Amino acid sequence: xxxxxxxxxxxxxxxxxxxxxxxxxxxxxxxxxxxxxxxxxxxxxxxxxxxxxxxxxxxxxxxxxxxxxxxxxxxxxxxxxxxxxxxxxxxxxxxxxxxxxxxxxxxxxxxxxxxxxxxxxxxxxxxxxxxxxxxxxxxxxxxxxxxxxxxxxxxxxxxxxxxxxxxxxxxxxxxxxxxxxxxxxxxxxxxxxxxxxxxxxxxxxxxxxxxxxxxxxxxxxxxxxxxxxxxxxxxxxxxxxxxxxx
Length: 246
What we know:
Helix content: 25-40%
Strand order of the largest sheet: 7-4-1-13
């Protein structure tokens, strides 16, 4: 089980404009119908695309593209997750809802705010989960069944068991910690680099929390926005059971 989420000092120093929203959830289930919340978000995403004409002109996405280039990653070959969702919405007109309802809901928030919003199964993460330059030893599991060692220097989400839970920072998640029908404990991470990052992440935290409590009546949630030195300190998993000696 996850014990802590944090960022490496080197990554924060290189990307000092970074803000991160972390939301922990306990009591998740697959039994929810989130269509109304998804429709609201996708309608807003379509308006956003109409306003800018293309996802590539949205400031939050432009900032992610700049970050990718700093990391020597081609942002048109390996797109940030929210950009991929918006691009598909613009070019094909579709949004995939045939997913776990929590994943579909997070994807709709990604589209609405042009910010990556990732949900991971907290029970599949061992100890500290750290966003950092890969050690060169961590193992990534793809959704196609492939396994790979993440090259040293690539940004990933690395845990204490040596598993990489993402590729190229916000490009693609690992199948190992993907949300499933058995998921009960969740960590949601949304990250932004643009000038209005904090305000947008606060909106996501407020609206996502409201939707979670509306669609899943039994969940418990704890969330926060981190920036600067707080990113390195991180946040500890709040639902851990502590056994006290008698």
